[in-house]
Structure formats: structure tokens, C-alpha cells
Amino acid sequence: MLYEKVLRPGLWSVSANDAEIAHRLTIRSLAALEHVPGALELIRSTQKIGEQEPVTLCGITFPNRLGLAAGCDKHAEALLALFALGFGHIEVGTILPRPQEGNPRPRLFRLPEDHSVINRMGFNSHGADTVAKRLARYRRLGPMPGPVGLSLGKMKTTDNAVASVDFIDVLRTLVLYGDYLVGNVSSPNTPELRELQGKAYLTALVRSIVEADRECRARLKLAPRPLFVKIAPDNMSRFALEQTLEAIVEGGGSGVIVCNTTTERPESLVHPLKNEAGGLSGPRLFSTMLALVRKVRELHPEMPIIAVGGISSRLDAVKALRAGADLVQIYTGLVFQGPKLIRDILQTPL
Ligand SMILES: Cc1cc2nc3c(=O)[nH]c(=O)nc-3n(C[C@H](O)[C@H](O)[C@H](O)COP(=O)(O)O)c2cc1C
To answer: Is 312 noted as a catalytic residue in this protein?
Structure first.
């Protein structure tokens, strides 16, 4: 009750003036709760997530089909508390090889009337070494309640031509951790990053990441981690999508995450901050995401798909799964609805 009545309304408050401070406070409070005896059990019992049906994808067992999208716990600070809320998997990151400040503040904006967020964080990262230390600490505490994905990115100053060096640096530093990898080539806030989605670049990038992972994991007698590529919703003509998916397959990637934030600004947005630069997330993304998931499924009937983008209800999650997704993720819905959204989505097996 303490959590529901006091902590939750304060932490998830959408009226906070500075969205980034509200977010940091949320993550720090969740992280602090991990050190309070009995707190995680309290969260779990408050959430009352019912029995779920586990699903196996790329050889990994997920306790349920709902995950937390990348960008919420970028630096692996509150994984156990977030799992306690009911998530079946958590995507950490995007993680960079070295610490990076990201763009100047303000860079995160909530648009409450639109239930949307605009962010131009620009890959703020504590760096792979720090994330590795945090994951090592979690490992000492015992097995994770569910799979953890590692979203890999490149430094702002790294040229696209050598971007693979950064992605590989991160996966090597985190060789011991993470159940799947994600190549993030779709953030709109790192100049020219999205050009990596082009077929020639992407095939080479995927191949080099997959080979590097196989190599460094084999040395430790560990199985390679499946690689997903996270794609953008913008400028994805049928041809562009076909090319991107072919690159994933030819490069030896395992699946696709559909999709990152959009640079489009739908007419229907009403909040005065709607023209802030950055990527828009939330319900305005949902129909684009759904159409993309359908197209991927049509083009590649067997390809593992994780759907993310504007999922704001159980019905949305069900629609994404019916469109062909294997797993779904949320982020912005959680900002406006809090952990109740997780409860709603998982009220019965998804
Ligand atoms: C503040 C913020 C930061 C994000 N950071 C990342 C990131 O670092 N890496 C990434 O792949 N996606 C990032 N995303 C995108 C989300 O993972 C997700 O793809 C997008 O927000 C759409 O889902 P949603 O509408 O449920 O939020 C971020 C989103 C937000 C709102």
C-alpha cells in the first residue's frame, strides 16, 4: 500500500516540471527499494500479476510476453525492482563503450494531453564498464527473474564507417551478461545513425557484431547471444523495409525490434511542446508500428519480432501480437499510467 498510495503517485506524476528529474527520481527510488528488506515482495504482491504463459524465442525463455523497452533503465540501475513490477524481460541501454553526456538539457518533454513524450537525450550513457559492474552485482545476488537485453550503440563522435568498433566494444565489455543483443541503428538523436539501416552498411554491421559475439563468447564456452536490430518507423517504404530485413538475415541477425521513436509530428498533437526536436513516442506511434509489424511478418513469416511503440492498453498489446509480434514492450505508457498498465496488460496470460 505504501507503494501504491505514496510512492507511485509521486514518482509517476505527469505534472512534474522537469521530466528528466522525475525519471531519475523514479529510477533512483526503485533502485533504493532493492536494498529495503521485503520491498520487492511488497511490489510483487501489490502488482498481483497472475499466472503467465512462458514463451521461448531464439532459444530464450521469457516468463511472459511483456518487456520494458530500451531507454527507461539505460544504465542497469533498477532491474530487480522493474522485474518485480511484472515485466518478463528488460532491455538495458542503449549502452555506449564509454560514458557520454548526451544532448544539453532540457531534452525530455512530456506532452500529457497527448499521452506522448518527445526525447532528444542523444545517448546519455554511463558507459559499458559501469553497466558491467552493475550487472556483475546483480549476478552475485542470484539469477535474474527474466531475460535482459543489451541495447548497443555508438558514440556521437564515432564515424558511421567504423561504427561496428563501438558496438563490438560494448558487447565485449558485457561478454558475461545479457541474454540477447540489440543493434540500435534507429535513434533519431545521434546524427546520421539511421543511415546504418541501409542494406550495405547494415549487412556488414550485423555480420561483424554477430561474429564478434560468437568469438568472445566461445572463448568463455558460452553460447552466442541472438542479435535483434531495432528499426525506425520513419521513411520505411516497403522497399526500405525489405532491404533492412534482408540485411539482418544475410548478416546473421536473429530478429527485429519494431520500432524506435518517430521524427514525424502528427496533426492530432495538441500540447504546446509538440514541435520540440527529438523522437516522439506514445499512442501516435501505434498504428505505424502495427502496420510495420504486419509487413515484417508478411515478408518474413519466421522472423522473431518484438513490437514497441505506443502500446497503451492490453488491447494494444493483443493487437500487436495478432499482427505477428512474438513479444511486446512498453515505455511511454508506463510514464502516464504507471505500473497499473503492466497489471492491465498481464491481467490474464498474454
Ligand atoms: C526518454 C526515452 C529514451 C529512449 N531511449 C532509447 C534508447 O536509448 N535506445 C532505444 O533503442 N530506444 C530508446 N527509446 C525508444 C523506446 O525504447 C521505444 O522504442 C519508443 O519510446 C516507443 O515505445 P513507447 O511508445 O512505448 O514509448 C527511448 C524512448 C524514450 C521515451
So the answer is: no
